[in-house]
């Protein structure tokens, strides 16, 4: 899943203009990417936590091994680093599996200009609980749990108080960010992680760990807007634009909700897979003018997963009255459309960003209840650089998942 906008109102991080980037665009890019500095409120919180001894002792850090990128080449290799000791609110996790998301590719290659190295990526993490802090009651040693894109938030703002912490302006990303102890966060392509219990989810019994990994980003990214915008009722007609990791989840979830699903793609290449393997009802090639015209005013919503610049007007024309075009791809260039395309059908262009912990747990139960499965390719860690090369070429059906437990990370 790609990183999406969460606020336009953050203060600027510095006074310099990047070449060719206007201030609003730069402001957005900063909001999309990870912070370099620890904000003052977080520093104060750190001091308070140290004074109250509710954080793990920094003098008793443990080490772990992950695979890290060292520069914008994006090549990953073994990297040993420190983890804080398990604090009272922490869960110490042995990583079993971790999915590869397209946003990992953006980050390791510094596509948005805010990457910090060394960087251990990975935010679709499934593993076993090795240890819990004294305040942890929801998780027990030996349980299988998951960790997604976030490992921290302020807990005080309106989004946090409303259980939609993914929209907190002070959220802390699972990697390429700075934790409250002032140290960089590192992700799931590693032997172990320590995560505050609030950002850990239980994996329902009966779901296999490797199948669950992509759900912790791609799955909830689709489920959240369908739930929030009231698009879960049976009989709706939905479109899935782009058939990649998030798109294939969109087809599966929408079909499980009882929707008529149209996959929209730029070519015929994925037609057989969409219709025969994923169960889509219709396949629409966006360059086929006649077919697009025939499909006008037919969809209640479109999940737009395309991560590069593209015209919106052809897809707006497919929406019914009050239809919604829901953007999910990270695109750092302006998207254009003529306003009558929206006005004359009271249509909406909106966006959505991953999902909350609450939504993630709800989605996992939904996945189990419906008996769904992900279409994944499981690889060992020594294949990860090749996997990223293939992902960049869209050569995966439909999600790589790294078998961390079965890999030798220090070689």
UniProtKB/TrEMBL annotation:
PROSITE patterns: ADH_ZINC. One of its GO terms (molecular function) is cinnamyl-alcohol dehydrogenase activity. Keywords: Metal-binding, Oxidoreductase, Zinc. SUPFAM superfamilies: GroES-like (SSF50129), NAD(P)-binding Rossmann-fold domains (SSF51735). Belongs to the zinc-containing alcohol dehydrogenase family. It comes from the Eukaryota. Its cofactor is Zn(2+). Residues 74-402 form the Enoyl reductase (ER) domain. This is Enoyl reductase (ER) domain-containing protein. GO terms for biological process: lignin biosynthetic process.
